[in-house]
């Protein structure tokens, strides 16, 4: 029997009469990488912000590990949404120290996550001097501190060079083996195709497709078909 770490049922978010998320029903399998695809402004970030408690849902359900989601579940969820939340005048270790102190975690956890994201040799270099890829990896390290069961990454490859993208891709693919399920949002089809096990395609706030990625599938044609269909339905 397949286990789902997260499900949403008819999840909606209404901003002043405009539906940014319209009856979104996701099913995220445990220990997998789920790619949430969609054009910019499709409703991906809004959906992820509801799952992480940043935004309050207008209606619908969020089910986490078989029970209705509550803010207590955030202890098992790590997230990097939009820009990494860094203190740019602090080192990588100091940034993580702030969080371990706030969360009441052992300081040994800092070395563990720095090793996971390959940032052990940054020394006294301040986060403000990091490359975009290093900042993204530090943001992921912060999200990993609390040993999350679910890791949510919103457009994590934005602004990265090809080497940074490949490093991040390899890192994300390693997480399911560590018992971490990943939801990855992106508008870059080729990247999601290389990373994800399953995909959902959102356009105009509507989830138009959800399935396992099949080898050789023309993801671009599928994506365009879903986007065009959602536009027709909006008219």
TrEMBL record:
Source taxonomy: Bacteria, Bacillati, Bacillota, Clostridia, Eubacteriales
Single GO term (MF): ATP binding
Family (UniProt): Belongs to the ABC transporter superfamily.
Sorted UniProt keywords: ATP-binding, Hydrolase, Nucleotide-binding, Transport
Native source organism of the sequence: Clostridium ragsdalei P11
InterPro entries the UniProt entry points to: AAA+_ATPase, ABC_Gallidermin_ATP-bd, ABC_transporter-like_ATP-bd, P-loop_NTPase
Pfam families per the UniProt record, alphabetical: ABC_tran
PROSITE patterns: ABC_TRANSPORTER_2 (PS50893)
Name under which the protein is recorded: Putative ABC transporter ATP-binding protein YxlF
Domain ABC transporter: 6-229
Positions of transmembrane segments: none
EC identifiers of the protein: 3.6.3.-
